[in-house]
Amino acid sequence: MYASALVASLIKHFDKSLYVYPGGTIAPIFHECKAAGVPLICTKAEQGAGYMAIADAALNNTPAFVAVTSGPGATNLITCIADAFYDSVPLVVFTGQVGTRDLGRAQELRQRGFQEVPTPQMVAPISKGVWQPQTIDELGQALIDAVRLSLDGRRGPVVVDLPMNVQMSLIDESVCQKFANQLAAELALGKASSMGCPTEFLKSVKEALDAAARPLLLIGGGALDTASEIRELAERWQLPVVSSMRGIGVFPSDHPLSAGWIGHTGMPWANRTLFEADCIVALGSRLDVRQTGTELDVFAEKQIFQIDLDAAELQHSRLSKVVSAHCCVANFLNEFLAFDAPACQHHEWLQQIDDFRTTLPLADHGKLPGVAPDELLGYLDQATKQQATTVVTGVGSHQQWAARYFSFDHPRKRLLTSAGHGTMGYALPVALGAATTQPQQLVLCVDGDGSFQLNIQELALARELELPIKIVLLDNNRLGIVSQFQRITFTDDPVTGDFRNPDFCAIAKAYGVATYQLESFDPAVVDAFLNDNGPALLHARIQHDAPVSPMLLGGQTLDDMWYR
């Protein structure tokens, strides 16, 4: 038995799969995982493995595991590590590495071992922790420390860089059993820790909400596990709710108290609500520039309370006069819900928000021939209303349209998207990971023609694993949102405005994926696509000029978004 059996034991503890793209310096792990009964899911490229694992971790709220080889294997995975870091996903990464003898070289040498790169130094700024164990004992402790840190506080990725000779060190069964016992004991201890909310902060929030004429809850990605408590708070106190993109669906999109999602491409009525609010309680939200815009003077006179697990976000807030509490959102809510709600029901404020919704419409409909994105996505939303659904998007105009036209209700209908890092190529492998992890749910993969081509090879895995994902490809022959930015800013869109795309249906068919074509909107074609029993692609030729409108541009305030 090799020391890499400890890695298999760790994954077995969580009853998870290992997502992999193979190579020589990571091969020992595969053999030990097979012996231990750990499922191995082999993708077509490293990003495919990383993004499938991200879906697993995000949907189950537990660590997920990915393994790649040294050199280009590790460097190809860096984008996935960054995604997990900025969107707080507990990803556990194993990278192969040359033997310790070659690592102990003169620093002025660029490389001694084949496919050697300084993985720890490269990934340190975008991970919660990095280990490069040199012995069996160091390996065992590194695995425990890594998985514990991935779950502690604000979650995120960790990396264990594995020298080849350490992986292949011989151990016996007793070492593996001792490690398994230590792992279970230390993880159980970690679960006991909790971070409460200061009493004075709770009282201050209550007093502010009691006195506020236009109160508002702002929900971020740090509140994903508290949907029922947030709903109780909003309904008891009659508080309108907005969210960041990461917080979409934590509060049901179609609830009467929902005022939509805010920010750069958020709902115009949500931005106006945030602009007018006099008291904001931000739950698990960073209040970053994509949420608030660049013009911050409007926030100076508001009462703002921020609850977040990340002390650094609180210490370095972009907004002045924020009163903050360093604790988890769940603890704040559990303690705050002990207070009695005030008699005031905020009828005038809620009516004002309804008026904003009427007077500030979305304007995403283009003028040229083709499928209108609002019409297609609105129909898909209604057609899947009664199904447990995971909507996965790439990055681009389609991402904003999906967030605008689907109604989300976490976790029954949820959104997975690359919010912090904004990575094209995210959608297809994450959709595959979602379908693998939660096979009982419908998985809608909404992608654009630019984003789709970055990881198009993973179509092979959809048929290989018989994953019935439904891919909605919005093809406008351009990098729409970048092209739009260039036209607004520079009046021209070189290299982004007019693409000559391949025959996507022919490619999908070559991979064994069923295809459906929309040149203009046809509900019958959409219904047939949704009812297909296997993986299927709906290729929709979207209006070339369909904009993301309105949009909050630099220098604009939340009440004055750009309209096309």
CATH-derived topology of the largest domain: Rossmann fold
Structural class estimated from helices and strands? alpha/beta
What percent of residues are in strands?
15-25%
Which CATH top level class of the largest domain fits?
A: Alpha Beta
Sum up the overall morphology in one term. Answer: globular
In short:
This protein has 564 residues and is of the alpha/beta class.
Structure commentary:
With 564 residues, this protein is an alpha/beta fold. The protein folds into three domains: 5-191, 3-Layer(aba) Sandwich (Rossmann fold), CATH 3.40.50; 199-359, 3-Layer(aba) Sandwich (Rossmann fold), CATH 3.40.50.1220; 373-541, Thiamin diphosphate (ThDP)-binding fold, Pyr/PP domains (Rossmann fold). The chain is built from 24 helices and 18 strands. The strands form three sheets. It has a six-stranded parallel β-sheet with strand order 2-1-3-4-6-5, with helices on both faces. The chain has a six-stranded parallel β-sheet with strand order 9-8-7-10-11-12, with helices on both faces. Helix 1 (5-13) runs parallel beside helix 9 (173-191) and helix 12 runs antiparallel to helix 16 (347-359).
List keywords for this structure.
564 residues, Rossmann fold, six-stranded parallel sheet, 24 helices, 40% helix
Record the SSE blueprint.
Layout: H1 5-13, E1 18-21, H2 27-36, E2 40-42, H3 46-60, E3 64-68, H4 72-86, E4 91-97, H5 100-103, H6 119-123, E5 129-131, H7 136-151, E6 158-163, H8 164-167, H9 173-191, H10 199-211, E7 215-219, H11 227-237, E8 241-243, E9 258-261, H12 268-276, E10 279-283, H13 289-292, E11 303-308, H14 311-315, E12 322-326, H15 329-336, H16 347-359, H17 373-383, E13 389-393, H18 397-405, E14 413-416, H19 427-437, E15 442-448, H20 449-452, H21 459-464, E16 470-475, H22 480-490, H23 504-510, E17 514-518, H24 523-531, E18 536-541
Parallel strand pairs: 1-2, 1-3, 3-4, 4-6, 5-6, 7-8, 7-10, 8-9, 10-11, 11-12, 13-14, 13-15, 15-16, 16-18, 17-18
Helix pairs in contact: 1-2, 1-9, 3-4, 3-19, 12-16, 17-18
